[in-house]
Design goal:
Distance between the termini of chain A: 120 Å
Largest sheet of chain B: 6 strands, mixed
Keywords (chain B): Membrane, Transmembrane, Transmembrane helix
Strand order of the largest sheet of chain A: 2-9-8-4-5
Radius of gyration of chain A: 37 Å
Number of helices of chain A: 1
CATH topology of the largest domain in chain A: Immunoglobulin-like
CATH architecture of the largest domain in chain A: Sandwich
Number of helices of chain B: 34
Strand content of chain A: over 45%
Shape of chain A: elongated
Strand content of chain B: 15-25%
Protein name (chain B): Membrane protein 6-pyruvoyl-tetrahydropterin synthase-related domain-containing protein
Largest sheet of chain A: 5 strands, mixed
Number of domains of chain A: 3
Helix content of chain B: 40-55%
Oligomer: heterodimer
Distance between the termini of chain B: 85 Å
Helix content of chain A: under 10%
Chain lengths: 271, 1007
């Protein structure tokens, strides 16, 4: 009897482990296109399916309710979605069924103007031309037709003045930038001589369009005499750098500033 | 006494001892292990493996270490069991639960194993010995070798079944033996392999011997061995069945492991291990791997050997014990290498043999201890010296051994094996945020805690802590244990680390978490920038221009093998457990043995004296030696000793201790010493170096004074540096003191200093969303320009030299790479090492020098073309290279110049490592070579330091190779190079131009 009860328990155990096969529910009034919002998807089924709408960028869980052998799904509180191919997925544990659809918005949505500038950063040393691509989207990033075209492209010639410019007003992401170019000339003069140091002013440093060079531009300072060479690095701020050279380092030295391959005039600190 | 009564009593006593041992283990080891675990060598590695199985049970590909490896390279049972427990408890707790469970099984195993030799009371003492045995304490609490202990625990439980199968012939014993062996195989392959030689063979021998009658035993040794051989032939069926079943078990249970070792054999340079040292030459290794685990074994060696040699049935165990003891002595004698062969000797860690010797000795030690406590040896002592003396001797032995055990538990405090515990949460959080997990990381100075970090994160590291799985050539070609502790592997370690740091792009290595500033100079000069100090004090270093991890296809393994690996080893434990229940219920017999145990409790006088006294002598001497070394060593007994100990304290930054070596003086207090040190110290040698060797030479000495010259060699992350110092010493009150050197102070003229520079901030992702960065937020690749590039051949050496400019308006990070294409389609990649400034401020330039293959290799392979690639990235910081150098160049010979450099620190912080990057130019302005020249000591703000370097000029003997096409690319686009311009400054300075390239540790500058 003990052995028999063991077998029965085993049988029950294996029966309990057996999984049932689920049939694909029928979608009533199935349509290839799903218009958003205000849709009701009706499936003939007795199973509690989890129903999601998969757009090509994200899955969205639909709200479901059961009614006499049917399950009805809809998507409240949303005006629109990113249009394009998608699918309805009914899933239960590891079983799922997909129903491909084309998602379309039922109502016209707000039009948002977009401008894409390329290159975003322009250096006047090379050229000041820029490509502008104009287009419009709705709030769900669906491209909208404007004058029978999706895109309008134009070539722009930018002003050489450095700065941060807005392609669309108050849209920080649409900004583009004109940088300053290579230094054209390095003005240099001794500003003062105190007890311990020479103070040398370098600048204003500008490019060929009279733009002030970028903050942090490195200026190589060179002092030398027949015997030794003294080198230092300074960083410009608003086009100017003031360099303090200890007098002990600069007896009878010649002084020069250098940015990339541009050299300043050579001055003698003791004159 | 009635024998049956005696058996009942010993049975009762044995079981009582067993229960006491198990309870004692639970309340001692069970509590302590949670606290000793973080400081063990191996525990975290096994926890990491357990974490793998916890996450990916049926997927053996582990991508987190070494760019990926297969976990089938180690038997899985231990890790899988911890993984299962970790489904309920945290990983560390799971490990502790598992460890204490295994210790309980081991205690039962030793009890059952000892019953093969002696009565149950002795076996009970043996079980108690497991709780206290230094080798087991060390294996558990210092080494954390859980698979070794698991394998041993089940092996010892299997042996009595095997013995009974051979003696009694019942199938149930064979089944039980095989089921326990299956667990051994699934837990630890090395125990399974060597267990056959050192444990199974002696058991078989003993079983065969026990089948002989008394007259056969009394024959001479050769005849006796012949009789055993005959007995083995008679039992050939049993032996054959056992062997025939063991082989498929050994192969089948962990078949994926054998498959891996066959298809992906370990071909790496052997990693040095302390257990292979000559213990006379390296006593520290001897203490850890031989003395500590085996002191009790040596103390009781006379009685153990007496017992072993007394009965012929123990002959196999005698051989096994002595062989294990010999192999465990590592490289002290050439014998282990001869026995194992050079290959096995260099792969195996030999301490395990000593450990096994200690296990074999347990029953024999227990036998004597039992005799000493309540048997013949006790009676002998009492009859000769009274019970009071016996009690005193027992107490002294117990106390000295107890102190010895406490010493082992605190071994890591006396001899730190691991860095202090690191909080890993800040690191895990850092890797999880901002997609940092898409790159690999490397830890430095973490010790085995790097495995704990990996177990808690899904981020991948280029390093790892399981040497057999390493396949990256940068690791396998050098005897380096881990990159993480490269400084302990000398030149090889730093060469490997340097390769990874410079070739970071190759392995998508972007972050280094550093817990040891020793590595700072190497990190800085190989182009790494500090980015943030985490809340746990760990500095994060980052490398620019590193692309994210590319998907690496896992090594192909059939699904069948994956399922085998996930199911079969664990099943072996389940089956062994079920069979054990069945065995205990239905088949368990009272005694193992067919012959009655010869339970003689007799030891000769000499054995009793030696085995009773040696333990107290050994442990007392050991502890006295430790106390002497800690407290009583005369550190100032002579000038040389005083200087050596002073440097030892300096090396470990025990400045107060170091100060006590100076001659006491009211004008030179500790404050003054520390003050002088703080303003005169700092730099590569004092701050970022480890003392490698020291030689003190006494130049002159009188009765009470001495003058010494000290030659020191320092190991820095940028290579070895030597230094010579001199010291005057005086004798005061029988102690030698150092006379403080005269302090020459440099005083800056200014009372306040200022320094201007521009701070930059990369805005990064401006749109707050979980989507990847939108195109509008991407910053353009900064502009750069090659000013010149040259292919230079100087005898055997070839290099690409040149200069590159940051042409942009923002600071940039540049990475350079040279591809040499040979005619046989071989392509080799080379990177600049330390001769390059990786971070450049707007409009600044740097020289570079990239060493290529040697001339012989280049000429034999024939170069087709060379391509030089520069990738640029926006950088926020790290572009200030500090210092204002002035330099004078003297011509020493026609080809040799001396550069005298004076670096003035114009910054508001100390320059910790003053250095210059020099270039040798010819009259046309062509760069022939570049070098990084480093000064060893720091410069304080407003002060300057002068140093000299001799540089060999090469332009008159080297040649510029122009016939090889050299193309340059910036951010993937082919660029042209402008004509080389003359450099008047270089011409004035005999062809030498310099750039400052200094390291400042002040984090505000965050290089």
């Amino acid at each position: 009897m003990r052995t028999l009860s063991l077998y029965i328990a085993l049988l029950l155990f294996f029966y309990g482990c057996k999984s049932t096969t689920l049939d694909k529910p029928e979608w009533l009034e199935q349509n290839d296109t799903l218009f958003v919002p205000n849709f009701n998807l009706v499936f003939l089924t007795d199973t509690d399916w989890n129903i999601t709408l998969q757009t090509f960028i994200q899955p969205i869980e639909l709200k479901t309710r059961k009614e006499k052998g049917k399950i009805i799904a809809n998507l409240p509180l949303i005006n629109g979605l990113t249009e394009g191919p998608g699918w309805i997925r009914l899933s239960k544990n590891k079983t799922y069924f997909d129903y491909p659809v084309i998602i379309k918005n039922r109502l016209p949505l707000d039009k948002l103007k977009k401008i894409y500038r390329s290159p975003k950063t322009v250096n006047p040393d090379s050229n000041l031309n820029q490509q502008s691509i104009n287009y419009s989207t709705d709030q769900y990033s669906n491209l909208l037709l404007v004058n029978k075209n999706y895109f309008f492209e134009e070539q722009l010639h930018l002003n050489s003045k450095t700065g941060t410019y807005y392609a669309i007003d108050k849209d920080a992401l649409s900004t583009y930038y004109v940088q300053s170019g290579t230094c054209e000339y390095i003005p240099i003069k001794m500003k003062e001589r105190n007890k311990d140091n020479y103070i040398i002013k370098i600048g204003p440093l500008t490019d060929q369009y009279q733009n002030i060079l970028a903050d942090g531009t490195m200026i190589k300072i060179l002092c030398w005499d027949a015997k030794s060479t003294f080198s230092m690095q300074a960083y410009s701020l608003r086009g100017i750098a003031n360099v303090s050279i200890p007098i002990s380092h600069s007896r009878n030295y010649l002084f020069m500033a250098q940015i990339n391959r541009v050299n300043s005039s050579i001055i003698n600190l003791n004159q | 006494m009635d024998t049956s009564n005696n058996n009942i009593w010993t049975d009762y006593l044995g079981k009582k001892f067993l229960l006491v041992a198990m309870s004692l283990a639970l309340i001692t080891h069970g509590v302590i292990i949670y606290f000793t675990l973080p400081k063990t060598y191996d525990a975290y590695v096994h926890i990491f493996f357990a974490d793998h199985y916890s996450r990916f049970w049926f997927e053996p590909w582990e991508y987190r270490w070494y760019t990926g490896f297969l976990t089938i390279s180690y038997p899985p049972l231990v890790h899988q069991m911890i993984a299962l427990i970790s489904k309920i408890f945290p990983l560390k707790v799971s490990f502790c639960i598992y460890a204490i469970t295994i210790l309980q099984i081991l205690i039962v195993g030793v009890y059952r194993f000892s019953k093969l030799f002696f009565d149950k009371a002795t076996a009970g003492i043996a079980a108690l010995l497991v709780v206290l045995l230094s080798s087991i304490v060390e294996t558990l609490h210092v080494f954390g070798q859980m698979p070794t202990l698991t394998g041993l625990a089940f092996l010892l439980n299997a042996l009595p079944f095997l013995y009974q199968y051979l003696c009694k012939g019942k199938t149930i014993y064979l089944v039980m033996a095989l089921s326990f062996f299956a667990v051994v195989i699934s837990s630890h392959h090395v125990t399974a392999i060597f267990g056959v030689a050192f444990f199974v063979a002696p058991t078989v021998f003993m079983a065969l011997s026990d089948g002989l009658n008394e007259s056969q035993e009394k024959k001479n040794l050769f005849k006796y061995l012949y009789t055993i051989l005959v007995a083995a032939i008679k039992k050939y069926k049993k032996l054959f069945i056992f062997g025939a079943l063991m082989i498929p078990l050994a192969v089948g249970l962990i078949f994926p492991y054998w498959y891996w070792s066959k298809t992906d054999p370990i071909t790496q340079v052997s990693i040095p291990h302390g257990s292979r040292d000559n213990f006379f030459l390296k006593p520290s290794s001897g203490i850890v791997f031989y003395i500590i685990p085996l002191t009790l074994i040596f103390a009781l060696l006379p009685s153990t050997l007496y017992s072993l040699f007394k009965q012929r049935r123990f002959l196999g165990w005698t051989v096994s014990f002595l062989l294990c003891l010999l192999l465990g002595s590592g490289g002290t004698t050439p014998l282990p290498k001869m026995i194992l062969g050079a290959n096995a000797f260099n792969i195996l860690t030999l301490d395990r043999f000593g450990f096994w010797a200690s296990i074999i000795a347990i029953p024999f030690m227990a036998k004597f201890i039992y005799s000493f406590i309540s048997g013949g040896a006790r009676s002998f002592w009492i009859s000769r010296f009274s019970s009071k003396n016996h009690f005193l001797l027992s107490g002294l032995t117990g106390i000295s051994y107890f102190l010895f055990l406490i010493f082992i538990f605190h071994l890591s405090s006396f001899r730190p094996l691991q860095p202090k515990e690191i909080e890993i949460e800040p690191i895990v959080n850092f890797m999880n945020r901002d997609d940092h997990i898409r790159w690999r990381f490397l830890t430095l100075g973490f010790g085995d805690q790097m495995a704990w970090l990996s177990a808690n994160s899904l981020a991948a590291s280029v390093d790892g802590n399981y040497h057999s799985a390493r396949r990256l050539p940068e690791l396998t070609t050098r005897p380096v244990e881990r990159l993480e502790n490269a400084k302990f592997s000398g030149n090889y370690g730093l060469a490997s680390l340097s390769d990874f740091l410079t070739e970071a792009e190759k392995y998508s290595l972007k972050y280094v978490f550093s817990n040891d500033r020793y590595y700072d100079p190497l990190l800085y000069y190989t182009g790494w920038s500090r980015t943030i100090r985490l809340e746990n004090g760990i500095m994060v270093w980052e490398r620019g221009n590193v692309s994210t991890i590319q998907p690496t296809p896992p090594k192909k393994l059939s699904r069948l093998l994956k399922y085998m690996w996930g199911i079969i080893p664990l099943s072996s434990l389940v089956i062994a457990s079920l069979l054990t229940i069945l065995y205990l219920k239905k088949y368990k017999e009272q005694d193992y043995l067919i012959p009655a145990l010869k339970n003689q409790d007799y030891y000769p006088k000499l054995i009793i004296y030696s085995s009773s006294l040696l333990p107290v002598v050994f442990f007392s001497c050991f502890m006295i030696k430790q106390i002497y070394e800690l407290l009583l060593v005369r550190e100032q007994k002579d000038p040389v000793t005083a200087v050596l100990n002073y440097y030892n304290n300096l090396d470990f930054q025990r400045f107060e201790n170091a100060f006590h070596f100076f001659e006491p003086s009211p004008t030179y207090p500790l404050d003054q010493y520390l003050l002088e040190k703080s303003v005169s110290d700092g730099g590569l040698l004092p701050s970022y170096a480890k003392l490698d060797s020291i030689h003190v030479k006494t130049i002159r000495t009188t009765k009470d004074s001495a003058f010494c010259s000290i030659f020191t060699r320092w190991n820095t992350s940028l290579g070895f540096e030597s230094k010579t110092d001199s010291m005057n010493l005086v004798l005061r009150n029988s102690k030698w003191y150092i006379i403080p050197p005269k302090f020459k102070i440099q005083i800056p003229a200014e009372q306040m200093r200022s320094y201007n520079y521009v701070l930059f901030k990369k805005m990064g992702k401006r749109v707050i969303s979980s989507f990847p960065t939108v195109k509008d937020d991407r910053i353009k690749k900064p502009f750069a320009q090659f000013i010149q590039t040259n292919l230079i051949r100087n005898g055997k050496e070839n290099s690409i030299t040149g200069e590159i400019l940051n042409a942009d308006d923002i600071p940039i990070n540049i990475s350079l790479k040279v591809l040499v294409r040979y005619q046989n389609e071989l392509v080799k990649t080379f990177y600049p090492q330390t001769v390059f400034q990786y971070n450049l401020s707007p409009k600044s330039s740097t020289y570079f020098n990239i060493t290529l293959d040697n001339t012989k290799a280049m000429d034999s392979l024939k170069v087709q073309s060379i391509e030089l690639y520069a990738e640029t990235d926006v950088s926020e910081r790290g572009y200030i290279h500090g210092g204002a150098p002035s330099y004078t160049v003297k011509l020493l010979t026609s080809d040799k110049v001396q550069i005298e450099t004076k670096i003035y620190d114009e910054l508001t912080t100390s320059i910790n490592i003053p250095a210059i990057l020099i270039a040798e130019k010819d009259e046309s302005g062509k760069i022939w070579q570049s070098q990084l020249l480093i000064h060893k000591t720091a410069i304080r703000s407003g002060l300057s330091a002068t140093f000299q370097n001799n540089v060999q000029k090469i332009q008159h003997r080297a040649i510029a190779l122009t016939q090889v096409p050299l193309s340059v690319f910036i951010n993937g686009q082919k660029r042209s190079i402008p004509p080389i311009l003359q450099d008047e400054l270089a011409t004035k300075n005999k062809g030498i131009v310099v750039l400052p390239h200094c390291f400042m540790s002040e984090e505000f500058y965050l290089q």
